[in-house]
Automatic annotation (TrEMBL):
Pathway(s) it belongs to: Amino-acid biosynthesis; L-serine biosynthesis; L-serine from 3-phospho-D-glycerate: step 2/3; Cofactor biosynthesis; pyridoxine 5'-phosphate biosynthesis; pyridoxine 5'-phosphate from D-erythrose 4-phosphate: step 3/5
Stated name of the protein: Phosphoserine aminotransferase
Enzyme class label: transferase
GO molecular function: O-phospho-L-serine:2-oxoglutarate aminotransferase activity
Location in the cell: Cytoplasm
Binding residues annotated for L-glutamate, in chain numbering: R42
Role played: Catalyzes the reversible conversion of 3-phosphohydroxypyruvate to phosphoserine and of 3-hydroxy-2-oxo-4-phosphonooxybutanoate to phosphohydroxythreonine.
Annotated Aminotransferase class V domain residues: 5-348
Amino-acid biosynthesis recorded as keyword: yes
InterPro entries linked to this entry: Aminotrans_V_dom, Pser_aminoTfrase, PyrdxlP-dep_Trfase, PyrdxlP-dep_Trfase_major, PyrdxlP-dep_Trfase_small
Enzyme Commission code: 2.6.1.52
Length: 360
């Protein structure tokens, strides 16, 4: 068996040692004679798995006891509704920054529940640049300020945390969480669909400042009420036990790599190499303002779109998988999350270089 380099945006590659450990433990977790998948979520064994995963996540991210950490279901997209239902009071308003497709989805969903003010938009730049915060039309009365630190599809990433004053800052960190150090004390709520940097799809990890609990509207579905989920240790119903376990293995792996500081170094190096190659080669292009180029998702185009299919076919043949760009933007996209080793980026650059020489 040989493992390919999988550049998929999500579900994305997982660290190979994590998959190997999961395989070893598949039939018999720690001498229990059971797979984790078969365990009661109320059992001592699973509660230990769950609590360890939460603690490791807190350690890695630097999340204090002022926050509840929730392991919820329905992916990041379910949070687009869960957030306004919990934090946007009837008659209130929320501020949103529009930097691309995921921001837009969050905005569209929140608009179903109340007044949404789009306080800044990257649309004028074709989603290649982030407007100066001094020009954002934020309101001190907003229930919260929502933004998307990394736009997974466009490859546009903030290199700063916006200052929201006393307004709670809410961030969709799905494709950037644990990729670099972040001061989590600046946020009221962060959420991340697991399938980019944490584990299997379906799971969504939420960290919410405890003073923001208990504000859900009356009609909020119980399963979407942060306070209920927090009070029940994310076990109001049966949680996504196996995904939670696998996320725990990823957290242990991240700790063994040296944590987010060490990951940030590797991630910066991987991104610098790939953008550096793209910039130095006339055959490839990336349109994003250099300062805001994503470390995790690198979209690029070929000089001639007619060569896209051939490029992808050649990449597949070398075990460089899922490089096709999102249907909405075309071209290519290399997602290089924590689990993508530097050697995978090197292999991609070698192939891109050869392809440009032959066909450019
Ligand atoms: C992938 C992604 C989502 C959607 O995640 P689901 O788990 O499929 O709902 C939302 N926001 C961002 C930034 C993403 O990258």
């Amino acid at each position: 068996m040989s493992r390919a380099y999988n550049f998929c945006a999500g579900p994305a590659a997982l660290p190979e040692p994590v998959l190997q450990q999961a395989r070893e433990e598949m039939l018999d977790w720690c001498g229990t004679g059971m797979s984790v998948m078969e365990m009661s979520h109320r059992s001592d064994e699973f509660v230990q798995i769950a609590e360890t995963a939460e603690q490791d996540f807190r350690d890695l991210a630097g999340i204090s006891d002022d926050y509840a950490v929730l392991f919820m279901q329905g992916g990041a997209s379910s949070q687009f509704a869960t957030i306004p239902l919990n934090l946007l009071p009837e008659g209130g308003s929320a501020d949103y920054v529009n930097t691309g497709i995921w921001s837009k989805k969050a905005i569209a969903e929140a608009q179903r529940y109340g007044q949404v003010n789009v306080v800044a938009s990257a649309e004028d730049s074709g989603f290649t640049d982030i407007p100066e915060p001094s020009a954002w039309r934020t309101s001190p009365d907003a229930a919260y300020l929502h933004y998307t630190p990394n736009e997974t599809i466009g490859g546009l990433e903030f290199d700063f945390v916006p200052d929201s004053g006393t307004v709670p800052l809410v961030a969709d960190m799905s494709s950037t969480i644990l990729s670099r150090p972040v001061d989590f004390s600046r946020f009221g709520l962060v959420y991340a669909g697991a399938q980019k940097n944490i584990g299997p799809s379906g799971l969504v990890v939420v960290a919410i400042r405890k003073d923001l609990l208990g504000k859900a509207r009356g009609l909020t579905p119980t399963m979407m009420n942060y306070q209920v989920i927090a009070e029940n240790g994310s076990m109001y119903n049966t949680p996504a036990t196996y995904s939670w376990y696998l996320a725990g293995l990823v957290f242990k792996w991240l700790k063994a790599q040296g944590g987010v500081e060490a990951m940030a170094e590797v991630n910066r190096r991987k991104a610098d190499k790939l953008y550096g190659f793209i910039d130095a080669n006339d055959f490839y292009a990336n349109p994003i303002a250099p300062r805001f180029r994503s470390w995790m998702n690198v979209p690029f185009t070929l000089a001639d779109d007619a060569l896209n299919a051939e490029f992808l076919k050649g990449a597949d043949a070398r075990g460089l998988l899922n490089l096709k760009g999102h249907r909405s933007v075309g071209g290519m996209r290399a997602s290089i999350y924590n689990a993508m080793p530097e050697a995978g980026v090197d292999a991609l650059i070698d192939y891109m270089s050869e392809f440009a020489k032959e066909r450019g």
